[in-house]
Amino acid sequence: MSNSDANTERFVELLGAHERELIAYVYALTMNWNDAQEIMQRVRIRLWQQFDSYDEAKPFGAWARAVSYYLVLAFRKEKSRQREYFAEAVLELVSETYERGVDQAVQRREALMKCLDKLSAEQRGVVDRCYANNEKIVDVAQQMGITSGALRQSLFRIRKSLQDCVQRFARSS
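^ that's the sequence the OP posted. Answer follows.
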C-alpha cells in the first residue's frame, strides 16, 4: 500500500469516527439543517485539503471542530453579504402571510355580513348609526331615550353576539 493510499485510508477512518460529532457541532452553530449540510460538505473538503498539516499527536475531533468553526464563520459572513437572498426569503414569507391574512379577512367579512343580517332591526339600526354613520354614542342614546351607559352595554352585547356568530362561521368552513 502506498503512502498516499494509507493517508487516504487514515483520513476516511478518522472522519468516519468523528463525522456525527462534527455534524452535531455545525448544526449547533447554525441551527439550520440545510446550512449545516452545506457547511459539512465544505468541512469534508477542507479537512481533506489540510489533512497533511494535521498533527496526529493531537485529537482529530478538536482539529476538525476548529476547522469547522472557521468555515461556519465564513459561511455566515458569505450569507450576510447576500442581501438579495434574505430579502427574497423575507418577501416570500411576507407574501405568504399576507395571502393567508387576506383570505381570512375576506372570509371573516363575509361571515360578518351574514351575522349582521341576523340582527334585529333595532340592533342593526344602532350598529349602523354608531359604526357606519359614526354618530356619537351620547347623541344616539339621547335620541333613543336611554343613557349612554345603557347604549354602550347594548353595543357590547351586540358586538359579542357578532363575534360569536363570526367564530361559528369560521369553525364551520
